[in-house]
Structures are given as structure tokens and as C-alpha cells.
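Recall from the previous lesson that a structure prediction takes nothing but the amino acid sequence as input. Here we apply that procedure to Enoyl-[acyl-carrier-protein] reductase [NADH] from Arcticibacterium luteifluviistationis. The sequence below is the only information supplied.
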Amino acid sequence: MIIEPRTRGFICITSHPKGCERSVLNQINYIKSKGKIEGPKKVLVIGASTGFGLASRITSAFGSNASTIGVFFEKPPAEGKTASSGWYNTAAFETEAHKEGIYAKSINGDAFSNEVKQQTIDLIKKDLGQIDMVVYSLASPVRTHPTTGMRHKSTLKPIGGSYTNKTVDFHTGEVKEITIEPSAGDDIENTVTVMGGEDWEMWIDALKKENLLSSDFKTVAYSYIGPKLTEAVYRKGTIGKAKDHLEKTAFTITDSLKDINGKAYVSVNKALVTQSSSAIPVIPLYISLLYKVMKESGVHEGCIEQIHRLYSERLFINDTPLDSKGRIRIDDWEMRDDIQEKVAALWKEATTESLPTLGDLEGYNTEFFNLFGFKYDEVDYSLESEEVIDIPGLQ
Ligand code: NAI
Ligand code: NA
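The prediction returns the following C-alpha cells.
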């Protein structure tokens, strides 16, 4: 069929297999161009199909020749209906990995569930024996708790009072004020249950119990801090409470891994266009200004550049550098004073009329559609494309 982008709200409900393949090949080529990393050899990536998780899987496989198992939650294709982009990304990734003799298998299901954990454990036992790294990169709006069966929803709300600021609808370019009402009831608890560290710890506990973690095992989960501008809705909002919890959990997990000299890290990453960040109010305006400033200063990075730096300059060197709270920082360039001062100045001036020149609205828009395999110059979108594509190593 001929596949075109169709948007609903801030998301795109179609995706293009050729464009997703392009995106994956670009990331693989980037990693290959950087040479070998003395990194992990057997890796489980939870949240492996898009964004930072996909970049981690690609960096593991093509940077240090690692066998990878990927876990994700994606919509399979059907006749006349495209899959979600993470499905096509994974199909392209596995095809390339297998061509080079690199082990890659995947599990599509709810990572929060006991069933998917058990399925993963069985696959590791059968194929890999032990693993030396787990990347935890889930971003989800909901979690059904495996013991209580309760379904929790995460929210993106300020705490203590309503918050008013500018935002942009990046589809229309309209800059306007929005007011977000503060959290109420169980919003904070629910958000911590979904996006905090409990599930990460459950994964590591379950794997350790089965003796599937090798000595010197490492695990990393991803967090965000960001500037004053977005603090009320991000770091000091409901999602920030979940990130506080995730960051604390790293220490709990490290304690539980003492006997195998294991270590759990949180890496604070840069703000990037992903399916998850597009859904957060205010953040798209911030990102479009940030991209402009970082590109002009020559320090812009996407997911793959970020994760390459994480592996080669943070995780897999002697003495991983940490901040005063024990976190890895690869948001260092985003948070540079000169970058933040420029963004803050532009923020004040940004209007519907001025944003296209002040900010990188076009870059934002292109990257957003790139997430779904659209707007790649190399792809001829007028051609028919097969929509039903298999993931070769899907279990
Ligand atoms: P994403 O939306 O691109 O990726 C989310 C992944 O989780 C996908 O592979 C998806 O299939 C998987 N997933 C979601 N629910 C699942 C479930 N129930 N079971 C199994 N898999 C499931 O998100 P992104 O942006 O890469 O986020 C990953 C982590 O990075 C999150 O913790 C996020 O907070 C963090 N982060 C994101 C930043 C950004 O600007 N995008 C900045 C810093 C940190
Ligand atoms: Na991810």
C-alpha cells in the first residue's frame, strides 16, 4: 500500500517501514563510524524499540558486537494496516544484526507483567546463559501492577499549584499560553508507580534470583532534569517524583548486587524529540529552542549520539564519572550555562510569528515525523510499500 502520515492529536497513527529502516540504518552507520567500544557482550534492553532504548540496543550490537534481547510493546501490522514504528524499527535492526551474525531476539508484550518477565528469563536461560547488562528504557502512560492487578495511570502535572506558561502546537506552529492544573488525589503515587523504579527493581531481582546476571553486571535506567523553565511541569511535577524514585532505586539495586560486584546507574539524558516527550506540555517549545541553540553551538545530539557517548565516555571506562547525587550526566551540554542563557532569552521572545526563525520548529517537526519513518529524503513515499513485515527473531 501507499503509506502516508496520519496524525491524531500529537501522535502519528501510521508509520512507514522503509523510513523506519532508514532511521535504523542511519543509527547503525553512525555507531560503525565511531569504531569499537569495549562494552557489554550480552544485553537485555527493556523498551528496546524506539528512542533511547533502540539507540542502546544498536550501540550494544554494532558498537561492541553484543547479543541482545529486546522487550517492547508495539502494534503488529495487518493487511492494510501499518504496524507501530517500533515494530518496523526492530524488524530492520534484527535483519541487519543477523546479516552480520549478531544474535538478536525480541519479545513483544507488557514488560510490567510477570508473564513477560518469565518469558524473558526462559529465553536468556535457553540462549545466553547469563547477561552482563540490562538497559531499562520504558516510557509508558500506564502500568498494571503485577501483584495487585490495579491499573495505574501516570500524569504530567505540576504539584502544589497550577502552572501557566507558553507552549507550541508543533503541527500548526501556534504558540499560546496553557494552564495545567495541579496534581490531585493519587496522581503522584500513580505516576511513581508507573514511571518510578519499582518495576526496574523487580526485573533485576527476578533475573538475579535465577542466577542470570554475570559478575561485574551493569544496569542503567534513564532520567531527565532540565532547566528552571520546565521545572514546574517536569522535575518538580508528578513525573519528577517518579524520576526521584527511579534515581533512589539505583542505590537499592546496587546494594542487592554486591555479591556479584554489580552496579545500577541512572543516566540523566538530554531532552529529545521522542514519542514520549512530544506528549508533555511546554517541552516541545523548549526543545525547539534548545535544538536551535545547540545546533548553532555545534553540540546538538540525537538519541544515538547520546548513547554512544554514554557507553564510550561514561559507562565503559574505568571510574564512571558521577554527579554529587551519584548520577551519570550526558545532559551536560544541554545544561551548559551559555546554552541555557540563550534558550531562556529566546523563550521570552517566542511567539507564533517569531518561533519559526527563533527556534528550530522545522527541525522539531521533521524529527517528529522521522520517528514514524516519514520525511526522509532517501525514501520515495509515492511508491507502494509492503506493510506486513515480520520481526525475524520475534519469540
Ligand atoms: P520512547 O517512547 O521512545 O520509548 C519507550 C519504549 O518503551 C518503547 O520501546 C516502547 O515499546 C516501550 N514500552 C512502553 N510501554 C511498555 C510496556 N508496557 N511493556 C514493554 N515495553 C513498553 O521513550 P524515550 O523517550 O526513549 O524514553 C525512554 C526513557 O528515557 C524514559 O525513562 C524517559 O523518561 C527517559 N528520558 C527521555 C528523554 C526525552 O527527552 N525523550 C530525556 C531524558 C530521559
Ligand atoms: Na526507549
